[in-house]
Amino acid sequence: MMPKDQRVFTKEFKLEAVQLAQKSGKPQAQIARDLGIADSTLHHWCKEFSKAGERAFPGSGNPPASEEEMRRLRRENELLRQERDVLKKALAIFSRSQL
């Protein structure tokens, strides 16, 4: 069985879909069908837009500052763990040779 390709939508498409859902007076399910997307997808977009406003849907190329900081700290944390492990191994090797 072949995996489904995940469709990618632009920020502009998502914003227009949310505005259409808010202003048209039609049910979200009808709007989603008209746009060719799942109604749960449109619901998720509306929810995200209500939380973040115009900053919603940053895309993978422009993450929010907090996510970028978290990613940087995780990378730094992993590097420090690797350095610590190397030092532990070196200490074990040197302490064995002194016995």
TrEMBL record:
Residues in the signal sequence: none
One Gene Ontology term from the biological process aspect of the record: DNA transposition
Record-linked InterPro entries: Homeodomain-like_sf, RD_transcriptional_regulator, Transposase_8
A matching Pfam family: HTH_Tnp_1
Gene Ontology molecular functions: DNA binding; transposase activity
The protein's name in its UniProt record: Transposase
